[in-house]
Amino acid sequence: MELNDHGLSSSPTQSPKQTGFYVTLRKAHYSVQSGAVLKWDDVRYNPGQNFNITTGAYVAPSDGFYSFSAGIWNNKRAGFIILVDGKKGNWVLHSGSNLWDGSTSATINIHVNLRKGQQVQVESYETGIVYGNGNTNAIHVKSYFSGARIY
Hints:
Blueprint (H helix, E strand, L loop, with lengths): L19 E5 L4 E4 L9 E4 L5 E2 L4 E3 L4 E11 L5 E5 L2 E7 L3 E2 L5 E11 L4 E6 L3 E4 L12 E6 L2
Antiparallel strand pairs: 1-3, 1-13, 2-12, 4-5, 5-11, 6-10, 6-13, 7-8, 7-11, 9-10
């Protein structure tokens, strides 16, 4: 198995129904407006090519039960939500832990049944600053979005 620059396999052994992705932010700082979808620009794992870097959306390649996670490091002002087909569910990500430098970090995990073609994105519901890596080869990331089909 070959590993990419981030230590992840770019071509793992998968059954046709398994799929997943892991994306981060490349720049050091991103200004986000309320209602804006985060555009993850550092794709670290996307073997099925189901994450669309242009739209910031993961598109389910098949019906199934999926798990998604987002971790956001921000300036205490930005709140986030995971959207399914542009609709808000009962899951909200808002600033959680205070960090040493005055910023905050929060994580959200959702598990949801999706139909083929449904899209999942992270949206800001407040204006603020989101922190990215500032270095595409960073091992410890500041903000990320990931997901996988469970069954």
